Structures are given as structure tokens and as C-alpha cells.
Structure to design on (1028 residues):
């Protein structure tokens, strides 16, 4: 065999990197493919050109044991082949996340994935120092999914050019740019000059690295492919270039077990694309992605039609200021898929209504989603008095960096409660309790109940269970992050809750061997 | 003429009290009517029997000057007649409240009535000492409408018999009564014994007095005629006795300028009546009430059809836990009538979800209603640790007494802001601001704007007005009850709001002679 014989962990990336043709436009003129064969699976996957004459194929094996590969395609005359050994996963490696039991998510190794997202749209476009700071902040928090864009962002607080562009070319001059001229730049993009068939490998290599660093941290990389906040023309390249870009991204990142495809941030604000365009892109991803990664479309004013076959889950932004995650159970039922709230307003204090809720409300919205059998996503937009007139303030929501808010640790506290659900199950909403948001496990084994009182503040709560089962009851203060055991009860009993908002009661069947 | 010659203020009650037949059942067997004639109006009104051989006719004159009256009916052989002088109103007397400009309310003298309600369902059924305490608490607060029931209440915390019953007879034995047997009492009412054609004057005289005391305080008496929380059978007397009762009540209280008719608390929980019953009762009131007082039907799960001709305003209870007064503008538009939220959950901490919101949420709900051109109503249900196991705790929502909450003074603060609207106008919602609840005056004169940020917390707000008008801008902290003038601005300007919840900005056209 040859120099590519090596070992790789199951669910890690096996990468083949080889030289090929450099004449013409290697991104467009040549193809590279590889077929991977193990005793339990065979996959043929597209590779991509990475500049400097290098062609790359990446593959994620799903089984242990010996694999062989054969490369094909027009990229070179001489084709490689080889074999490698897939070893058992270690450490953080639980495999990719997939839909389990209709409404929930699990890792491939069977462990639960309770999605707790955050959003840093443009973090990979910031300075490397700031990107490192973002990773450090993620290390200090419980978030296990992050939404971010491949293309740079043009919006309030986001007027600087990214550190690299995805294409070779020259951007428009941004020296006149400020909040009041922002929309002019979005209307006339003619002074940008890009070749949409020539990618800039430096840009994509940085995304390789960041996605891999997220993978090591068990953080899902919810990669946003398109978005409307653009002054460079990346939102309106047209179908041919869109597809060319999508194929490249799927070939490049599909093997990362933590990748999720988000076709868009706020698809319905992208004026240059129709539903047919989004459907075509979604179908293309579905065809090109050999792993069928998590895939959805995030909305502005109206949900995408999540019933599409290529959509794995409902990626939702609330469409009503007063009811968002409160609608989780209805959305679940409508689409029969997991509900992942990717935008529920951000904790912060900026002047825009989507970015100035308090930590109490952010935490409450997470609980509302969770109790209704869905998942929520965080974001933060704190401006400080010194930033008030600054167009370039650094806000976690877009830039990453540092978190100042009070909700992240409450979200981590919620995570601790989720991790303690029997059997690693997801929750199911119990609609019969109008004045408590009530949930039990999906299997309805009557072993676990949660009652969440949201902004209501009962001093005590009368509970009605059957007379034959003993339950351990805890009172949970979701804001002050306290769990107070109240003892063992059966039948009808009264629990002192305290007359404070954001309280919950946890009722668990008594474990005999405790 | 005769001994009834006297003077009365316009909009006060002119009462004729005279002796008549006592044989048979004077409540049912005889009628008393009187025709009142002034130079601007003539009204023939029904009187009522008040026990002890006394027949009473009450009349509210709407004009100043000399009136004559003539009594008729089967109550006596010898009929009275007389004259009296109607003088100008004094002090608190602004006349009755009526609908003005489709969505708002005014007193007959043209002054504005911004409705700020509260609820004490059974306050007139408590001890006299407690009733006096309720009046004193009302004196210390800004509420100008109170909802209460003619019939006693049977519900949690309300198991004691009232101090008087509306009918002569004997109530069921309540010695076995507690929270868990409550529903038994509601199902079998056979051990009550009443004569539904013989009223108990002592009961009604107390209501005379309390309604008059409310009138003196300029508090509208929103009198609830029926309700479902009953163990005595008053909720299921049948059409004949219902109409007999309604006619008596209208004859007795219609002349009080502060009376409002509320056909029911939660009509849709009264299982013994149909929509046809409610419509018949509403039409009867409309026919019997010579003054066409404010009249509506309060709901449980679903609004009544407020389009009925005899309904003057939408008396609403929220039907969604997360959106109630936020829907005011839509309800206004649907029915073309004022929206008065009579139940928006109560400030408190009891175990039932309708009675344990915090003062912040109560205040927020008042502001949401107000900003959308409607009006809201308060209630309070605070239980203290010492009351926890008590079935008879005294809660303002039902018993009156003392207020402990933090919302009433914020409601009074809101009232001060309303009283300062130019021309005493009502507000109209401006839907174009998604991230501020915005309002202007109904006349859209561009002289007055309010922007309310509800739970959102902008650090600052950029405002866009025209360049030619100077505006005085204040920042209002609706929770801390502070109004901070920010100066005079025009065109585009930035206002520091502070990054706190429950803030508002008031923008008023600069007054030249200030």
C-alpha cells in the first residue's frame, strides 16, 4: 500500500491530502472523489481543492476496523489507494448527533444530546486573538451548539471587513460606512469584484480549524451558509454559484461529526432567493452529504416549511414578541421533528428589540422550550455606556469574545437538571396543567416529572399523585440555581414553593437502592 | 304640592319613598312606577318594594331645573305627585360614565374617565368592619372601578356564609365544608330553601349604601349579577326568577350614576345558563334601564360576543397565559367598543395560577392595555405563611380589606400620566414599532407620543421625528415611578433609557407658553 496507511478514531475525520492539476481553475475544472470501504459500510465522497496544487478528501468512518480507500476523478492521472485502521472513540468523542425518538437528539454512541445553543454569527471573521477568546469563553460555559456564518456579516456593529474573504477578489470600499449609510451598501454592491469560482483557501482553512476545535469540545457547529446581511454580494450570487459554493462546503466540512447545516440565517429576508432556491439548495445538500447531517433553515418573519424531507429539525426564531418557546409543543406536533429555538431574543441592552431582554427572561425562555420537549439557543448583546456611540462595539451575538450576562450560568444549571433525567430521555409537555408548565419523560414511565411555574409565584403547590408510588420531591429555584430536597411523598401532598418567580418542582420516583 | 318637594344635584339620586300595600307578596304582586318630567327630559322608571310596607322609586336627573313627578302602579290606591329642583353638580359629581369616541370613556360633564379597576368579588358580604376597611383602602388608592357580586361566593377561601342573603329562607349547612368537599356543595344544592320571589331588603339596603359610598368616591360600581361559584342555588334559579331578580336590581340601582351592569363573572362557567339566557337577560336590562348604563359580560375560557347591541364595552378576561392585554388593539378593532380588561391575573402568591403574578407583571399588563388604547383591572391574592393551611384567609380579590401588593401605587402612577394627556384624550396603538409598544392620542394631532418598552431593556433609543417640530422628551421609569425630563428635541435624536425593564419615553410637542 502507501504512505496513507494510518489509524483514526471512529467518528473522527480521516483526511487524504494529495497533489493534482493546477492548470486552469482547479476549483471548477477538476473533481476528486474517494470511495471508502469497511466491513460495515461503503461510501463514495466528494473531495475539494485546497489551493497550492493540493486536493483533499475527508471521510468520517462510522465503524471500527480496517477500511480501504480508492481515489478517483479528473484531478490527477495517477490515483491513490490505501487502507487505514479505525479505532474505538476516546474521550469526548460520542459521534455525530442525530434525531432520536422523533423529537429529541442523541449522539451516535447513544448518549443524550440536550442542545443548548449560542450564537456568534461572525466570530470566525474576527481577529485570531478574539477567536481564541471565544473558544475560551465556550470552555467556561455549557453551550454545546454554536451558530455562525461562513460569509461575513454587514449590519449594525459589524462594519469592519472580515479578516479573510471566501473568494479571491476585492471588496467594496467601506470608508464611508456607518449606521446611516448601511443600507446604501446593501443596495448597490457593484464595486465588489469577486470570482465566485475561485475560493480563498485561507478563509476555509480557518473554518476547518475552528470547526475541529469545536468538535474537540463537543460543540455542534451550526454553520450558516447564507444570510441577508451582506454588502459584498455573497447573498445574491445566483443559482450556479450558490450550488458551486454549497457543494464545496459540504465536501469540505461534511466529515466533521459536529457539523450542522443551516441554509440561512433569516432566509425570508434574503430578497435574492425564492423558496425554490432554498429547496434546491436543501436538496443539493441532502444529495451531496453522505452523512445526512442535521440540516434546517432559520427564519425571520415566518417559519420555513420544516416538513421538507431534507430538514431534520425545526430551526426556529420566535415570530411573536410575547410567545416564542411557549409554542414548542405545538410546533413539535405540527412538523413531527425536534424543535430547536435558534433565536429567542438576546440577553443584552442594545437599542434593538431583539437584543435587550434580561437574563431572567432568557432563562425563562430556555425553560419554556425545555419543558415543552424542545431546545433553545442563547445570544448576548451587551453594550456598555462607553460603547454607546460606537458602531464597532464587540457583542457576543456576532463577534464572540467575552460573555457578561447572567443567563449562561442558569443555562448550565438547567443542563445539570437535564443530564439527570432517567435514561437520558427527552421531555414531553403535559398540557393538562394550565397553571404550571408540566413535563414528563417521553416514555411516560411515571418516573420523572417537572413542574415549572415560569413568572407565576405560588407560595405552595398541592400535588396529586397516586397513592401507591413514593416520590422524591425537590424544589428548584431556576434563577438562584438551588435545588432543595423536600422529602418523599405519595398521593396528595403540599409542597412549599416560596412565592418567588422562576421556581420548579421535580418529582422523581423513589429509587430503591438510594 | 307635598312633602317630597326638595332639591337634588344633577346626576345624584332623587328618591321617593312611600307606603303601600303589604298584603300578599308585595315584591311580586304590586308595581310602582314614576314619571319624571323636566324641561329637557321625561322618564318613566320602575320602582321597587323595600320591605316594611315601603315602596321606593329612584331617579337620576340629567338636567338642572324644575322637575315634576307622578307615581303610578298597583302598590297603593292614593298616588303621589310632586316637584323638585335639580341643582348644579358639585365636588366629585361628574355624572355617569359613557362611551366616547368609540373606544374610550368620559363622564357626562366631559371630563375623562380612564378606567383603573380592581376586584373584590364578595366585599359586601363580609363583616361591616371589613367593608369599612375596604372603603378606606380604596380611599388610599387610585382605583376608579370595582367589580363585586350581588350574590355570595362559594370558592376557595370563601366558605363562610355571607352576612345576609338576598332572599328570605335558609341556606344549606356548611359545617362539613372545606376545599375538598367544595364541589359536592356545588353539585347538590337541595338543602337550601329560598323563596326566589321574596327578597331580603336588609341585603339590598347594604348594597344601596355601598354603591352610594363608591359613588361619593367617584368609583364605578361594576355590579356582577350572576356567577358560577355558588352553593346556594342562586346560579340556577331559572329564567322566571332570574328575570324577576334582574328587574328588581335594575329598578333599585339604575339611578346610581356609578352603576355598571356585569351580567356575569365568567358566564361560560355557569352551566345552568345558555347564550340565549344571557342574551335575554342583557336585553331585559337594556329595556328596563332608562339610563343605558355601561353593560357587559365577563368571560372564562372565551369572550362573550361583544357585538350585541346591549353591550357597551368588552369586559375581558385573558384567555392565554402569555398574551392578554397585549391583544387589546385587536379586540378593540374586532368589536368597535372600549376594551376593559376585568381580569388579567392577580398580584399574589396563592397556589392557583390566576392569583400569583408579581407586581412587575401586573403593572406591565396595565401598561400594555393602556398603550393599546384599552383599560385594565387589578386584583390581589396574597397569602401569608400563617394562612397557608387556612381555608378562610382574607384576600383582597374576594374579601376586600387591606392591600399588600406593590402594583397599586404603580397603577396610580400610570393614572397620573394618563391625566396629563392633552385634551383628556384616550390612546391609540401605533403598530409600526415592533420593538416598542407605541401610542399616540386618538386625534393623531402629533402632540403626544408614548413608547413603552415592556420587558425589553434598551440602553438608549434612537427616535425619528420631523425636523420642524420641537418635542419635550421625558424618560419614565414605570416601576420606580420616576419621570426624568431629557430636554427638547426635533428630527432624529437619541435618548438614554438606561438598560432597565419597564421603561417608557414620553414625547410631547413643546408648549409655547411653558
Amino acid at each position: 500500500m502507501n504512505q496513507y496507511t494510518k489509524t483514526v478514531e471512529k467518528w473522527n475525520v480521516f483526511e487524504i491530502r494529495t497533489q493534482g492539476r493546477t492548470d486552469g481553475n482547479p476549483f471548477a475544472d477538476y473533481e476528486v472523489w474517494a470511495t471508502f470501504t469497511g466491513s460495515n459500510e461503503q461510501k463514495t465522497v466528494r473531495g475539494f481543492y485546497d489551493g497550492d496544487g493540493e486536493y483533499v478528501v475527508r471521510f468520517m468512518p462510522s465503524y471500527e476496523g480496517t477500511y480501504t480507500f480508492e481515489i478517483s476523478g479528473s484531478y490527477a492521472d495517477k490515483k491513490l489507494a490505501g487502507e487505514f485502521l479505525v479505532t474505538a472513540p476516546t474521550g469526548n468523542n460520542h459521534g455525530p448527533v442525530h434525531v432520536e425518538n422523533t423529537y429529541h437528539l442523541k449522539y451516535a454512541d447513544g448518549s443524550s444530546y440536550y442542545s443548548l445553543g449560542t450564537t456568534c454569527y461572525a466570530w470566525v471573521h474576527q481577529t485570531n486573538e478574539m477567536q481564541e477568546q471565544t473558544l475560551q469563553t465556550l470552555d467556561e460555559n455549557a453551550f454545546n451548539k454554536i451558530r455562525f456564518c461562513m460569509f461575513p456579516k454587514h449590519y449594525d456593529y459589524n462594519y469592519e471587513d472580515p479578516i479573510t474573504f471566501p473568494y479571491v477578489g476585492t471588496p467594496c470600499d467601506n470608508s464611508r460606512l456607518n449606521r446611516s449609510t448601511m443600507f446604501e451598501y446593501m443596495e448597490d454592491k457593484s464595486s465588489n469584484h469577486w470570482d465566485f469560482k475561485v475560493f480563498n483557501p485561507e478563509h476555509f482553512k480557518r473554518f476547518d480549524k475552528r470547526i475541529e476545535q469545536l468538535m474537540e469540545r463537543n460543540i455542534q457547529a451550526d454553520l450558516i451558509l447564507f444570510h441577508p446581511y451582506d454588502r459584498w454580494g455573497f447573498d445574491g450570487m445566483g443559482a450556479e454559484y450558490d450550488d458551486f459554493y454549497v457543494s464545496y462546503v459540504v465536501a469540505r466540512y461534511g466529515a466533521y461529526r459536529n457539523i450542522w447545516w443551516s441554509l440561512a440565517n433569516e432566509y425570508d429576508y434574503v430578497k435574492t432567493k425564492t423558496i425554490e432556491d432554498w429547496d434546491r439548495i436543501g436538496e443539493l445538500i441532502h444529495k451531496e452529504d453522505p452523512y445526512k447531517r442535521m440540516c434546517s433553515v432559520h427564519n425571520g418573519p415566518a417559519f420555513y416549511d420544516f416538513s421538507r424531507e431534507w430538514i431534520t429539525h425545526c430551526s426556529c426564531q420566535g415570530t411573536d414578541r410575547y410567545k416564542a418557546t411557549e409554542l414548542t409543543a405545538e410546533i413539535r406536533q405540527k412538523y413531527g421533528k425536534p424543535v430547536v429555538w435558534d433565536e429567542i431574543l438576546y440577553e443584552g441592552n442594545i437599542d434593538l428589540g431583539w437584543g435587550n431582554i434580561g437574563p431572567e427572561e432568557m432563562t425563562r425562555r430556555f425553560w419554556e422550550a425545555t419543558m415543552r420537549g424542545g431546545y433553545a439557543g442563547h445570544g448576548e448583546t451587551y453594550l456598555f455606556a462607553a460603547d454607546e456611540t460606537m458602531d464597532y462595539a464587540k457583542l457576543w451575538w456576532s463577534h464572540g469574545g467575552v460573555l457578561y450576562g447572567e443567563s449562561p450560568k442558569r443555562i448550565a444549571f438547567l443542563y445539570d437538571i437535564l443530564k439527570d433525567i432517567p435514561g437520558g430521555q427527552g421531555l414531553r409537555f403535559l398540557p393538562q396543567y394550565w397553571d404550571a408548565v408540566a413535563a414528563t419523560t417521553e416514555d411516560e414511565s411515571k418516573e420523572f416529572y417537572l413542574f415549572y411555574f415560569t413568572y407565576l409565584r405560588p407560595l405552595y403547590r398541592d400535588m396529586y399523585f397516586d397513592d401507591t408510588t413514593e416520590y422524591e420531591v425537590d424544589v428548584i429555584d431556576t434563577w438562584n440555581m438551588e435545588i432543595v430536597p423536600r422529602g418523599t411523598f405519595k398521593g396528595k401532598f403540599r409542597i412549599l414553593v416560596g412565592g418567588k418567580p422562576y421556581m420548579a418542582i421535580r418529582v422523581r420516583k423513589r429509587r430503591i437502592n438510594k
Notes: The interface with chain A takes residues 320-323, 326, 348-354, 356-358, 361, 383, 385, 388, 434-436, 453, 455-462, 496, 499, 501 of chain B (CB under 8 Å). The domain at 7-87 of chain B is CATH 2.60.40.10 (Immunoglobulin-like). The mean pLDDT of chain B is 96.
